Task: structure prediction
Amino acid sequence: MAISIKISKTNQSRIKECDFENIEFGKIFSDHMFRVDYKDGMWQNPEILPYGNISISPALSSLHYGQAVFEGMKAFKDPSGNPQLFRPLDNYKRINQSAYRMGMPAITEELFIEGLSQLVKLDQDWIPTKEGSALYLRPFMFATDDFVGVRPSVNYTFMIFCCPVNSYYPKPIRVKVEKTYVRAFKGGVGFAKAAGNYGMSMLPTMEAKKEGFDQIVWTDGEEHKYVEESGTTNLFFVLNDKTVLTPEIDGNILQGVTRDSCIKLLREGGYDVVEKKISLKEIADAFNEGLLTDAFGTGTAALIAKIESIYNEGENYILPNAEDRKVSNWLYKKLSDVQTSKIIDTHNWVYQLV
Ligand SMILES: *Cc1c(COP(=O)(O)O)cnc(C)c1O
Result:
């Protein structure tokens, strides 16, 4: 690698303060972070430094106009304790697709991959090894001009920090089909992991939580007839433990790396996976005919989040007990075994760091 990253190590590791058995998601940060700044049309001065606050101008343009994109990925340990990443090149490609849509510069592959690799190697003792745990990695890029005027920023910062995490949704979740608010529409930014997509989801999700649900299921913005995705997960519906339906990539939904991994593993496992537009009527019919045997969300944080029930305009479809879910239980085990190298990775998804 041609780039050289300046490394300033902490002299006060906080690792002893972390209780690796009971980690609150997203609240504990490893010792170091990566940072590189975009100035004069170039990424400059990449460095790894102790995790800590950064100083910003009140006029920081991303705070006002939302040029901010992010990624979510994980590092694991193999059975011998060596650190590894899962499909980092897919996250690298996706952050640049998001950045492009938001009028932001591309990060280079070298900076993204080397920044991640060196950071995770340095903080590898922070990778938890308990079942379902991992080191969650958060690469992100934001506009840094201190200028109050609506135009693309000239300066940007790209950073990565790490959070040790246990499993995200330990219990199956109750979801509500959302028919008032809209997440994405044709020509919009639904496919981008852009900060604003989450800002606008807060109110609808808060309202659903007040009604006793854990998450909402977004539907299409034109007719509210087709399901899109839920929170930060892509959706899968299983018919008769055999056919697996998932919404097609249409520019509205996030093209999940976990979604793609699941589709490939399911197909290899002999399941019929169909990527298409899925109507609420189709789900209601499947439920009423007793065919809906499983439903789950997929995403890096949650991996597989089983859905306990789906509330749709006065009807509540209650799915089989979590232990009886053939497909999601099989898939969870398969995927986490690949990520932690308990089984052979035949797809070149695992990126070893040593
Ligand atoms: C991140 C995200 C996903 C899942 O993507 P993964 O690459 O599998 O983590 C799905 N939907 C939304 C809206 C997301 O932000």
Remarks:
- The first strand starts at residue 6 and ends at 7.
- The chain has a mean pLDDT of 96.
